[in-house]
Design goal:
heterodimer, A: 455 residues, alpha/beta, ten-stranded mixed beta sheet, 21 strands, disordered C terminus, B: 259 residues, Rossmann fold, six-stranded mixed beta sheet, four-stranded antiparallel beta sheet, 7 helices, globular
Chain lengths: 455, 259
């Protein structure tokens, strides 16, 4: 372990100049950004330079070693190019058949010619962030990079310093965006270390409603790096369903920050489905900053080979009478690894909090591992907080029951695995999205060759 | 080749155990089409072991003897093949399977059985028509089919579900493992009536029970008493009544004295 950390320091040291040079270059070339953004970027970069990348010594990164990311050359993709991507290729990706607006990002850059934005009621914005920064939408200065924390979070800091583009969605008070909005991020880069820093801001004002899908896919199998940040700001009684589907190359690295700032009586549900990447980490932070909020964080990770999927969550109850539920299931094959860390923080004023957390892991091979770490930090006295975690194999009693009714061993195993995934997928409220996700996960599981059984 | 009045099941001198512990020590039993057999016995006599071995549950070692099902060696078949061949075990403790929808499960099971028997698979519409008919036998509500298998079911619902599955799969040999345990009298009656309706000249039932009560509703042709891993006595339903009255101790002492 000591060796790894030394490696990491060296890598960071060698690369430090690269980061500085790139930051300086960007400052020179970026003439279009509004003036308020520069200090935010500078502060983030300073924070990044100060803290550096996390090591296994960091409590929050105990199970996930990011050293391989540091060893990659730092190659931010700074220019927009369609990179030969055609609509035909695009349409092969999941969820592209969904009705609704679709924003396409190629290596982190918005591609207007591939995107479809449906006409929206007045005031609703579904657009490229870079374009809206030029247009000067008022909500940007108020919210962009104001919520997701950069201090002590190297990757969010790096994104804030370097992002070029992403999506900006603004739903004014009382408005509903009828069809789901799909943000599709495609990696086309073939260079090792090609890096994208997508940045998304979603503001749903009081009483508004939105369904948003973020998907991360690729056309190449290169060792690319996606470092994405999505910030949600929900006003009073706003209803938002969010779904993130990560299916990057199994040689790629994917770090994502998802930050939610939730207002009074807001209803927010987020699903994180992770099937791709060699290493993926989702940092999910939620601030329940109003009374009577309903928040559900729901996730499923399917890994095989030497993949690692890490979900790291902090749910912070600030105000009374909020409910937060986290449900994460992992299905782990090969030598892959699943990591779950869920921290529930209940502030002194957050009485009548109901916080629930479950993490279940199904190991399909003897070499797969799962690390799960629930953490409760409670400063109020009238609260209900529960957590539970399991790591296990398929239930032998269930398998025998199915076989005793004529269902073959292999089919019985698959039925049970599908059911385990279904617990999560069934929570997706948007029906066409749920149906396609179910089919997709089923297909992935069908590809899995080794299906172990426990005793 | 099918012989006239060939037994459905023949158990010959069956010895079996778990982890070196002997449980069955020479069980002999012949069941012919149209017959209902009851196996009674005190706790630990090996009743559930016998049921488990017939269904093919793992973890049991058969050390001697054989089991023939329609003349074939039953013990070498995988559990799913036994089921497709027409052996059905109604579980003493039906397993809850969250996330597996009852309709999906039962349709998959029925179609496996039908394929095995050279019949065409049923589509969703045909299947639904069939199950609705069968549900009436067990007085089940329709929402039953929409729920995950056994999940959140009461004890009575679970047992009714077992018999409902039996009605759909139409086995040749049904083994009912303590289907009466934990049932109140109304549930017991529904379950027993269901079993009786499924009885016909070509199939057979093996009813395993601790108590005589079930046999007030399911009338057996033969009653066997299993004790210490052997069938200690065989009689007709009067034997069950006698046992109820005098208890297992009476019989065991009696057998011991005559041995």
């Amino acid at each position: 372990m000591i060796e790894t950390i030394t490696d990491q320091k060296v890598a960071a040291g060698e690369k430090a100049d690269q980061y500085v040079a790139e930051f300086e270059r960007q400052k020179r070339t970026d003439t279009k950004s509004p003036s308020w953004l520069a200090p935010l970027r500078r502060a983030a970069f300073t924070s990044f330079s100060e803290f550096g990348f996390p090591t296994l010594q960091d409590e929050d990164w105990r199970f996930t070693n990011v050293a391989p990311i540091l060893k990659l050359p730092f190659r931010p993709v700074s220019t927009h190019s369609r990179d030969g991507l055609t609509l035909e290729t695009l349409n092969q990706f999941p969820f592209t058949g969904l009705r609704g607006s679709r924003l396409i990002f190629v290596n982190g850059h918005f591609s207007p010619e591939l995107s479809v934005i449906q006409p929206q009621p007045k005031g609703v914005v579904i657009a490229s962030l870079a374009a809206e920064l030029m247009n000067g939408h008022g909500a940007l200065e108020q919210h962009l990079a104001r919520h997701a924390r950069t201090a002590g979070n190297a990757f969010t800091a790096l994104n804030t310093a370097f992002f070029h583009d992403g999506a900006f969605i603004y739903v004014p008070a009382g408005m509903t965006v009828e069809s789901p909005v799909h943000l599709l991020f495609v990696s086309t880069a073939t260079e090792t270390g090609a890096t994208a820093h997508p940045r998304n801001l979603i503001v749903a004002e009081r009483g508004s409603a939105l369904t948003l899908l973020e998907s991360y896919v690729r056309v190449t199998d290169a060792a690319t790096f996606t470092n994405t940040v999505t910030e949600f700001v929900l006003g009073e009684n706003a209803h938002v369903e969010h779904c993130k589907f990560q299916d990057e190359s199994t040689d790629a690295y994917h770090i994502a920050a998802l930050h939610m700032q939730l207002g009074r009586s807001a209803n927010f549900i987020s699903h994180s489905i992770a099937t791709g990447a060699k290493l993926s980490r989702n940092n999910i932070t939620t601030i329940l900053d109003g009374e009577g909020i309903e928040c559900v964080l729901n996730g499923l990770y399917l890994t095989r080979g030497d993949q690692l999927a890490d979900h790291h969550m902090v749910v912070e109850h600030v105000q009374p009478r909020c409910n937060s539920h986290e449900y994460f299931n992992g299905i782990l094959d090969g030598r892959s690894k699943g990591v779950f860390h869920g921290r529930i923080l209940v502030r002194p004023d957050a009485q009548k909090t109901d916080a629930k957390q479950t993490n279940k892991n199904l190991l399909l091979s003897d070499d797969a591992t799962a690390d799960t770490k629930p953490q409760l930090e409670i400063y109020a006295d009238d609260v209900k907080c529960t957590h539970g975690a399991t790591i296990g194999q398929l239930n032998e009693q269930s398998i025998f029951y199915l076989r005793a009714r004529g269902i073959g061993l292999e089919k019985a195993r698959r039925m049970l695995i599908h059911a385990f995934a279904g617990e999560i997928i069934d929570r997706i409220r948007c029906e066409p999205l749920r149906e396609e996700m179910d089919k997709l996960v089923w297909e992935r599981l069908e590809q899995s060759e080794v299906v172990a059984v426990g005793h | 080749m099918k012989l006239l009045n060939q037994p459905i099941l023949e158990i010959k001198d069956l010895h079996a155990g778990v982890e070196g512990k002997k449980i069955l020590q020479g069980v002999n039993l012949v069941i012919r089409p149209g017959e209902v057999h009851a196996i009674m016995g005190p706790n630990g006599s090996g009743k559930s072991t016998l049921a488990a071995i017939l269904a093919g549950r793992e973890g049991y070692d058969v050390t001697a003897g054989e089991v023939l099902y329609e003349g074939k060696d039953l013990l070498e078949l995988d559990p799913e093949i036994r089921a497709r061949e027409g052996v059905f075990l109604a579980f003493q403790y039906p397993v809850e399977i969250p996330g597996v929808n009852s309709t999906y499960f039962l349709k998959a099971a029925l179609n496996e059985v039908r394929k095995h028997r050279g019949l065409t698979e049923l589509d969703a519409v045909e299947f639904l028509a069939l199950v609705k008919e069968k549900m009436k036998i067990l007085a089940l509500r329709e929402d039953f089919l929409k729920r995950p298998v056994n999940e959140g079911f009461s004890g009575g619902e679970k047992k009714r579900n077992e018999i409902f599955q039996m009605a759909v799969l139409e086995p040749k040999l049904a083994v009912l493992d303590e289907t009466d345990s934990g049932l109140d009298i109304d549930a017991l009656r529904i379950v027993a009536e269901g079993v009786n309706k499924l009885k016909h000249a070509d199939n057979a039932q093996l009813v395993i029970t601790h108590y005589q009560r079930l046999l007030d509703y399911i009338i057996p042709d033969f009653v066997h008493v299993l004790a210490d891993g052997r069938i200690a006595r065989t009689g007709d339903r009067k034997l069950a009544l006698e046992l109820e009255e005098k208890g297992y101790d009476w019989l065991l002492k009696h057998e011991l004295a005559s041995a």
